Amino acid sequence: MISLTELVHCLKSRIIIILIALVGVVCSIQSVQADNFTQCSQSFYAGIYPEFINNKLSADTYPLCFDGFAVMYSGVSRTPLWSAEHLTRKRLQQAKTIDREDSFHEESRLPESKRAKLSDYSGSGYDRGHLAPNGDMANRSQQYDSFSLANIAPQSPRNNRYIWRNIESAIRYLTQQYGEVYTVTGVAFNDKKTKQLSGRVLVPSHFFKAVYIPAINQAGVYYAPNDESERIDIISIEDLAAETGIDVLPVLERQTKAEALALPLKAGDDIDEPESSNDEPVWLLLIWAILEWLVEQLQSRNA
């Protein structure tokens, strides 16, 4: 007959084994979530995805890889917080051959209680606004993924159909001009009182689209209130981080983040690139010119 001491020791051993197993399961789940974006790292510049400066935003988030783009989805707002794309001339050329087929659908990979539903948007007065737009999608698989409600947020009709459409066209124009562009499109909730659809989906106060052009190492952001005002501001990556609590392009140098590229407001508008400046101060250039003149004089005398 087993003693009480032996029984307690046996139970302790089993509990320790169970706890170790549970820790392993938790760690494996966390590593799957953390590594999820490795499957779509090509959507991010240098493979580095946006970082939350405001840690409150990271609560109840779900990283999702789609065909052609990546999304950070919030179970709190039941909208994406941002969507990232890498656009190239080839991709956009292929996208021109795909006609639009609407296929809005719930995202099955999300817990049912956290999903936005089609009924949430019905009769709401808001458009189902794409973050990664259908017009960027190069094949049917990408197009279908773009209509997932995990890539959709409530958007003011005039903002969606006019302002944002022009912006998306301008980005495609820049891609044709420079060969490739990285974008991060997202939402902000800066109003003191946030509206809700069906008491479930939060309505963003603002939409943004951050743009980075590797060919000229410059970046800028379109930042617009989610209303009918048709207002839009061009701000820097640094300013966007202050507004939203998200560093959308963490790998960029500080100077690139601090300067706002004068982005076009419609396709066909050229960027006013700053004139190349010499970092050398004028007095140093003058000294170099004098030294070069002296060297030339000495060489001429020795000839």
From TrEMBL:
Pfam families linked: Endonuclease_NS (PF01223)
GO molecular function terms listed in the Swiss-Prot or TrEMBL record: endonuclease activity
Keyword set, alphabetical order: Endonuclease, Hydrolase, Magnesium, Metal-binding, Nuclease
Organism, scientific name: Psychrobacter coccoides
Domain ENPP1-3/EXOG-like endonuclease/phosphodiesterase span(s) in chain numbering: 66-255
Essential cofactor(s): Mg(2+)
Enzyme kind, highest EC tier: hydrolase
EC number: 3.1.30.-
InterPro entries: DNA/RNA_endonuclease_AS, DNA/RNA_non-sp_Endonuclease_sf, Endo_G_ENPP1-like_dom, ENPP1-3/EXOG-like_nuc-like, His-Me_finger_sf, Non-specific_endonuclease
Protein name: Endonuclease
Taxonomic lineage of the native organism: Bacteria, Pseudomonadati, Pseudomonadota, Gammaproteobacteria, Moraxellales
Domain of life (superkingdom): Bacteria
Segments forming domain DNA/RNA non-specific endonuclease/pyrophosphatase/phosphodiesterase: 65-255
Keyword Transferase: no
Stated family: Belongs to the DNA/RNA non-specific endonuclease family.
